[in-house]
Automatic annotation (TrEMBL):
<dbReference type="InterPro" id="IPR016162">
    <property type="entry name" value="Ald_DH_N"/>
</dbReference>
<feature type="domain" description="Aldehyde dehydrogenase">
    <location>
        <begin position="25"/>
        <end position="492"/>
    </location>
</feature>
<protein>
    <submittedName>
        <fullName>Aldehyde dehydrogenase</fullName>
    </submittedName>
</protein>
<feature type="active site">
    <location>
        <position position="265"/>
    </location>
</feature>
<keyword id="KW-0560">Oxidoreductase</keyword>
<dbReference type="Pfam" id="PF00171">
    <property type="entry name" value="Aldedh"/>
</dbReference>
<dbReference type="InterPro" id="IPR016163">
    <property type="entry name" value="Ald_DH_C"/>
</dbReference>
<comment type="similarity">
    <text>Belongs to the aldehyde dehydrogenase family.</text>
</comment>
<dbReference type="GO" id="GO:0016620">
    <property type="term" value="F:oxidoreductase activity, acting on the aldehyde or oxo group of donors, NAD or NADP as acceptor"/>
</dbReference>
<dbReference type="InterPro" id="IPR016161">
    <property type="entry name" value="Ald_DH/histidinol_DH"/>
</dbReference>
<dbReference type="InterPro" id="IPR029510">
    <property type="entry name" value="Ald_DH_CS_GLU"/>
</dbReference>
<dbReference type="InterPro" id="IPR015590">
    <property type="entry name" value="Aldehyde_DH_dom"/>
</dbReference>
Amino acid sequence: MTLTVQPHRESLGLKAGQLFIDGQWTDGRGGQTWTHQHPATGEEVGGFVSGTAADVDDAVAAARAAFDGWATSRARTRIDVLLRFAALLREHADELRGLQALDNSVPLSFGGIYATSVEAAADVFTHHAGWVDKVGGQTLPPYQGGDHLAMTFREPVGVVAAILPWNAPFLLFAQKVAPALAAGCTVVLKPSEYATFAVLRMVRLLTEAGLPPGVLNVVTGPGDPVGEAMITHPGVDKVSFTGSRTVGKRIVEASAGTLKRVSLELGGKSPALVFADAPNVAIAAATVVGAVTMGLSGQACVANTRALVHRDVYDEFLGAAQGMAAAVTYGDPFEPSVISSPLINGRQLERVLGYIEKGKQEGARLVTGGERLGGDLANGNFVAPTIFADVDNSATIAREEIFGPVLAVVPFGDEDEAVELANDTEYGLGAGVFTADVQRAFRVSRRLRVGTIGINGFQVEPHLPFGGFKESGLGREGGQSAYEAYTELKSVLMPLTEEMM
Ligand code: NAD
């Protein structure tokens, strides 16, 4: 039977998407639309406005006009909006999960898992509501003595251009918008052209929560022209971006024009280090393979796509890894038994299949998968869970972010070699360490040049800093560091006696 998502489109009442500028839903100035094709079925899901540089001008002007009012609003006003929105998100979680399944085909089963859930996004808003009246500056004793005040203030950075990828729209919307609004910034947001509908619904809920006009504006459409207009706009003070390394580098380049502040959450080639004393090798294998094949089908920035495995447990790991890969199910994202997704579009499908060919050509051993799925799934961008063993760490599939269900397994002999292999990459987003030796766990964690490490497991925590070393990014999202990244520090000095003036 051919897969279709049409009934869900109707039951969720999907409407054509518009821009949201200065509190108004509008078709903008260009009259262009973008049609979204469902990644699992190839069907046209719906259309939305494909914005222009002129629409970005309007959105930035609205954000600038709203800035002073929002930046100086009562703390209570901002807290109430963030908390009301968190409550609305929780109330509308099922609807949002359904819209996400229409956008990026992340199955409902996985949309319920905390890391990519509406609940996690709501928790980020609840968390940041708590910062609104707590982050301030310091008053320092005067270094040169005497009656002198030396103080610092934290002030909102200004107008923020927030640019989202398609893979985890709930959490990533929250990680940018919540601290920006809490800090008193105003925002121009661009969702990914491959995950727009759920984000537009979130924006409607944010207005229901009482957000004043102009404080958050949305321009939908592709990276060029919409994203380009945002990152080069002289009225934008900061760009907060999550997406690929290539676009991240372009943003750094474009920021030079007006020296914009830049936060970047980019890709990874994160290693899992599985030592011979891992508490349970089969569970380690299931954890690693699960993250690379289930849910987002490896299209997750922090997935451990390189497994470095000690030679003593290498065969055991590969056996369990194959077992896990065989258990992954694909199909209709609204079907509860489906636990994984297709690749987001045809371009990404070709790219992943190209990497698989490259892996074979470069001499890695294909243990399982390696092909596109056919039959009922032939209209979608599905690729079978793929495991390569005996991969050399210098091979293309061990170095480049594939963003698909492809695991490269690399053997190692001792701890030093494992750490050296783990750090031998341009990326530095995350890592997993599997060992029962507590000292080894912390020793190795200290030596890894990455932003986040899971020891014998991993979970997303909405209040912990998250981000990358090296080419995986700049800055951190999550918690206090995120809030602070939407502020500027200002020093104010004042003598307290006439003689010192
Ligand atoms: P992408 O870089 O192709 O697109 C991301 C966003 O940037 C989209 O909204 C896109 O329209 C926009 N864009 C494209 N070109 C632009 C330009 N020239 N100027 C401004 N904006 C532009 O990435 P993607 O395919 O949507 O997402 C996958 C990537 O995101 C992977 O590399 C993944 O690792 C990364 N990612 C990182 C994190 C993290 O927290 N570190 C989380 C999720 C995804």
